[in-house]
Design goal:
Blueprint lengths: L1 H24 L7 H13 L4 E2 L10 H10 L1 H10 L4 E7 L16 H18 L7 E5 L18 E8 L1
Parallel strand pairs: 2-3
Antiparallel strand pairs: 1-4, 2-4
Length: 166
């Protein structure tokens, strides 16, 4: 009987040692470039919106653009060069909460206005020498209001930048 218990104990111990050894051999979880790069870059990009759009206008304000280009263009260019495969820089247009989101009658709607703003900044980037297949644009209407700001205020009329999955 003692021999059977000893044999069973040896079998169980061998099994446990083998199982533990397999777990120790497992490769540690890899931290990808996007695990740190994307959040850090988005936090940096958040600091550089293009603002100053007139009500219902998608025309990039020249003074605001010149100021933005001096401060933010080098940062944006560097980030674009480092965007990992599978991601793009989205130029995101915003509108204030006045007017409808979708077109109604002769009103173009916030979605169209915000898309036109995003496209105008996208085109301005290209004219400034910042172009890449990793840049896209999108309008979000008034769905992403600035917290703490009047939803119908001028500060809502802006274009932001964010790295998103392709």
């Amino acid at each position: 009987m003692k021999k059977i218990i000893t044999v069973i104990t040896i079998i169980i111990a061998s099994f446990l040692i083998t199982s533990c050894a397999k777990e120790q051999v497992k490769e540690p979880a890899k931290v990808g470039v996007d695990d740190t790069f994307i959040p850090a870059s988005n936090a940096q990009l958040e600091k550089y919106p293009v603002a100053g759009f007139a009500y219902k206008s998608s025309k990039v304000p020249p003074q605001e653009w010149d100021r933005w280009a001096k401060m933010a263009a080098p940062v944006v260019k560097e980030i674009i060069n480092k965007i990992p495969d599978g991601y793009v820089l989205e130029v995101r247009g915003h509108a204030d909460a006045r007017g409808p989101e979708a077109a109604e009658g002769d009103k173009p709607g916030n979605m169209k206005i915000s898309t036109d703003r995003a496209k105008a900044v996208y085109n301005s980037l290209g004219k400034s020498g910042i172009s890449s297949p990793k840049i896209t644009y999108k309008g979000v209407g008034s769905s992403e209001s600035l917290a703490g700001a009047d939803p119908k205020g001028a500060e809502q009329r802006r274009v932001t930048f964010v790295i998103v999955p392709k």
